[in-house]
């Protein structure tokens, strides 16, 4: 950068000047030649001087620029950086600048999950905000599914809980059978009834069972009677009628009373008998039931009483004057004390159960209705009611 030193040019000049004037004629230049040489040297020097000056100017301007830029930079402070970070084992790190305010992000390889923050920031004091995270194996047990002190055992895509004594269930969520019998618990007074019929304790739980002839409803605790009579197979012998009862069925064959010389009955429907017309002069015949009908009822045990079980009404034929008075009564059967028969309106009487019934049992009660026209006896009708009481309250 600095122009070459002109010392190489000065040396011949000094030799020329050193030449003594007396010997100038031979080896030394004459005056004219000397002046020419000096002028040439002067021009050389001038050229050198110009190039020197240009070099210095360039150097000065560069220094000035440097000075300017240094002066413009803020107050002197060493750049702050945070310690280098590594990617967590089984994971990756994004970001390689550890200067203030720079962030570094972390992810985990497939099959692992990040425990800790997903990013860290370099703070002005040269420390990282946040703890460096690590990657943990994603396992079925990592959600800690086992409760109550159960131990999680890793399987293929599933886990198994080893339960401590007294605990059971897939997550040890249930008390084991030895500990609590739900059925016993709910048998106590004031508790809601767990099952309509039988409560069966199971490990950690319970289920309801229904007696034979009943099915368990969708709620898991109610029992519903099975109607055997609608089964496609015939359940009753030919000639008999199937009556569904609580938990079972009965085969019945209603029979008309035996006839005698003056009186005879004919079956007009499976459940009805009618008396043939009486001889003109036979008064006793006219007092025998004109119709006998058969009725079958199925009841649960322990029905709340009083309760009306059966109604009986007159049916006068069209065009004929009907009875203007009716009388009702219980005329037979094996259980009179349980029932009363009373008139409920002008046309109707009803059979009322007044005593609680407990099954299993079968009761029979015969009720009759006598028709009067202007106080004169007209006819009498009998209903034979058979009641099947189931052993259960349902
Ligand atoms: C650095 O700064 C943060 C927040 O300003 C602070 O919580 C932390 O204690 C500091 N660390 C040190 C070593 O000074
Ligand atoms: C049957 O009829 C005869 C007369 O035909 C009569 O004497 C008798 O009392 C009647 N018996 C009954 C049970 O009605």
TrEMBL record:
SUPFAM superfamilies membership: Complement control module/SCR domain, EGF/Laminin
Entries under Gene3D superfamilies matching the protein: Complement Module, domain 1 (2.10.70.10), Laminin (2.10.25.10)
One Pfam family matching this protein: Sushi
Protein's GO biological process: cell adhesion
Recorded superkingdom: Eukaryota
Sequence ranges assigned to domain EGF-like in this UniProt record: 137-173, 179-224
Residue span(s) of domain Sushi: 80-137
GO cellular component: extracellular matrix; extracellular space
Record GO terms (molecular function): calcium ion binding; heparan sulfate proteoglycan binding; heparin binding
Signal sequence bounds: 1-24
Disulphide-bonded residues: 108-135, 163-172
UniProt keywords, alphabetically: Calcium, Cell adhesion, Coiled coil, Disulfide bond, EGF-like domain, Extracellular matrix, Glycoprotein, Heparin-binding, Repeat, Secreted, Signal, Sushi
Localization per Swiss-Prot or TrEMBL: Secreted, Extracellular space, Extracellular matrix
Function noted in UniProt: An adhesion molecule that interacts with extracellular matrix molecules in developing teeth and may play important roles in differentiation and maintenance of odontoblasts as well as in dentin formation.
Family: Belongs to the fibulin family.
Subunit structure: Interacts with heparin, FBLN1, FN1 and DSPP. Preferentially binds dental mesenchyme cells and odontoblasts but not dental epithelial cells or nondental cells. Binding requires a heparan sulfate-containing receptor on the cell surface as well as an integrin.
Protein name as it appears in the record: Fibulin-7
């Amino acid at each position: 950068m600095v122009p070459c030193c002109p010392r190489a040019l000065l040396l011949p000049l000094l030799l020329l000047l050193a030449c003594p004037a007396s010997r100038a004629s031979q080896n030394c230049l004459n005056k004219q030649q000397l002046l020419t040489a000096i002028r040439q040297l002067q021009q050389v020097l001038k050229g050198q001087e110009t190039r020197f000056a240009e070099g210095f100017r360039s150097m000065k301007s560069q220094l000035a620029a440097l000075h300017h830029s240094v002066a413009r930079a803020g107050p002197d402070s060493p750049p702050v950086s945070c310690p280098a970070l590594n990617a967590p084992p089984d994971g990756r790190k994004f970001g390689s600048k550890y200067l203030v305010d720079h962030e570094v992000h972390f992810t985990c390889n497939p099959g692992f999950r990040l425990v800790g923050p997903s990013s860290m920031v370099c703070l002005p004091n040269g420390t990282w905000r946040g703890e460096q995270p690590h990657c943990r194996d994603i396992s079925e047990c990592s959600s800690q599914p086992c409760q109550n002190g159960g131990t999680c055992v890793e399987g293929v895509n599933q886990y198994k809980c080893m339960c401590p004594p007294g605990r059971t269930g897939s997550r040890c969520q249930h008390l084991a059978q030895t500990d609590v019998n739900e059925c016993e618990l709910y048998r106590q007074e004031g508790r809601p009834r767990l099952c309509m019929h039988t409560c069966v304790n199971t490990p950690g739980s319970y289920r309801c069972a229904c007696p034979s002839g009943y099915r368990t409803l969708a709620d898991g605790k109610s029992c519903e009677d099975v109607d055997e009579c609608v089964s496609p197979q015939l359940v009753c012998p030919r000639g008999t009628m199937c009556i569904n009862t609580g938990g079972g069925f009965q085969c019945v064959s209603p029979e008309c009373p035996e006839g005698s010389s003056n009186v005879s009955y004919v079956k007009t429907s499976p459940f009805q008998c009618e008396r043939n017309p009486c001889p003109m002069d036979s008064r006793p015949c006219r007092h025998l039931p004109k119709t006998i009908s058969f009725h079958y009822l199925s009841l649960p045990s322990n029905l709340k009483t009083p309760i009306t079980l059966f109604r009986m009404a007159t049916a006068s034929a069209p065009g004929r004057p009907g009875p203007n008075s009716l009388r009702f009564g219980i005329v037979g059967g094996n259980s009179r004390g349980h029932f009363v028969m009373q008139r409920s309106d002008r046309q109707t009487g009803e059979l009322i159960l007044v005593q609680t019934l407990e099954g299993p049992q079968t009761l029979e009660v015969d009720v009759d209705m006598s028709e009067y026209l202007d106080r004169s006896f007209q006819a009498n009708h009998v209903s034979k009611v058979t009641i099947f009481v189931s052993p259960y309250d349902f």
